[in-house]
């Protein structure tokens, strides 16, 4: 249940959330043209403490978006450029021999770039599966184990990864265990004609764009608590559960399309991600409770990377997005009068 003490207190916290979200979004829009769904998705992940995977062809501003966000939220930021020859130690850190100044040498552990508030894993699917696996523990448990030491990540902690489409040369598909750790998978499309005009005006003139910090780590922690305090009515909760179950072949809610074309459906992390993202949608609409519309509005970015299509789907050109849209059409909403 919601722990807000009064309607006035609730209204104030909801207003603070939506105003802070809007302020950050407007500051990012100084640098990023268009792509509002992607911007909102990245901000939603940050507000709930989730990780996000951003996919698109090179040159669409994926890296710039995350870099700009780090400036706006005023968090410690590290960028990791993934390459085929990268090793796990390049991410988590390693022990190095250091001179202590007296002529003696000691073995000292040097933390890797993953130890930061906001981490940009750039072109994550350029690295081999062995290197990609170095992120599994830290993304789920917000800590890393190196030898006999355990290092806690700073709070807040968020991994924002970019990747090129997997059919491009020199890429490695991310394993299901890692994909499942991302709250969202966001698809970056090409700009519209009007966006191209704005891009030209901003990037080919002498105008300088200055990004200002608009929030802090402490504020983000408070906003995350506000998100978790939002209640979820039974109808919205049931709808979210059935959506996740409908993606699992052989379940009582699975559609014919799921049973035919899906080899692996969404895990319980899918329902957790649906609930948290839907709570953000409710807050942005100045509501105190989650609706079925909120759940439906986030189902694509939450589930598209959690549904593994089989060979028949790939041969038929059927994507996870098409399967999810079919589920939304065929799965009835729970009766709110019950």
TrEMBL record:
Keywords: ATP-binding, Nucleotide-binding. Residues 258-327 form the ChlI/MoxR AAA lid domain. Residues 51-184 form the ATPase AAA-3 domain. It holds the Pfam family AAA_lid_2. The keyword Cytoplasm does not apply. GO terms for molecular function: ATP binding; ATP hydrolysis activity. Belongs to the MoxR family. PANTHER family: MAGNESIUM-CHELATASE SUBUNIT CHLD, MOXR FAMILY PROTEIN. This is AAA family ATPase. It comes from Alteromonas confluentis.
